[in-house]
Amino acid sequence: MASLPAHEKVVLVGHSHGGLAISKAMESFPEKISVAVFVTALMPGPTLNATTVYIESSRGVLSALDNRVTYDNGPTNPPTTFLDGPKYLATNVYQLSPIEDLTLATTLVRPLYLYSVEDVAKEIALSSKRYGSVRRVFIIAAKDKFLKKEFQRQMIEKNPPDEVKEIEDSDHMVMMSNPLQLFTLIMSIAHK
User: Fold this and answer.
1) pLDDT tens-digit profile of 64-107?
2) Using only C-alpha atoms, what is the Rg of the chain?
């Protein structure tokens, strides 16, 4: 983003925890972003703390079904990594996606580093002046079982974006379960 020429702007799209990354970019480079699109993504804001959405998104997930965590700093400290199990992926993440995509995902799954609440709070502090100056669109995945529709709606209510769109027949992996509708929405948002 820093090397982008001053006269150019980008459309940022964040999915799932990628919402935290685009939020950080919005705070750091608001003048270089024409619109930020949150696709069933964590969407913190100036009045909705990043740690709050980070913690809420993890509630119940770490111990669900065949998911696993590791405790690299010892069992009395918080877990350090998280790994989605194949049953969890099939029932909560890829339940509407083609079986080929689920199969590939189960072979490519890697441990996800679990950032501490302190790290999240330190890295993602958002202001109305910078973050708030960027146009935001949230795309709801109606049948997402990872970031449930109720949670998506809570983020929208507490940190209202400029627009809200919804993809009805989509699981958490919208780009797999309903790619054409996602593509069409992103293109229409980008050209607005």
Assistant:
1) 999 999 999 999 999 999 999 999 999 999 999 999 999 999 99
2) 17
Active site residue 162: no
Encode pLDDT of 41-65 as tens digits: 999 999 999 999 999 999 889 889 9
User: Taking the model in full, what pTM does it have?
Assistant: 0.95
Cα gap 7→151, rounded to integer Å = 37
Catalytic site residue 144? Answer: yes
The catalytically annotated residue of 15, 97, 170, 172 is 172
**Which neighbouring-strand residues pair with 15?**
39
Per-residue buried b or exposed e for 123-142, using 16+ beta carbons within 10 Å of the residue's own CB: ebebeeeebbebbbbbbbbb
Q: Of 14, 24, 1, whose CA–CA distance to 115 is shortest?
A: 24
Contact between 191 and 163 (Cβ < 8 Å): no
Catalytic residue chosen out of the listed positions 15, 23, 144, 171: 144
Compute the distance between CA of residue 182 and CA of residue 4 in angstroms, rounded to an integer.
26
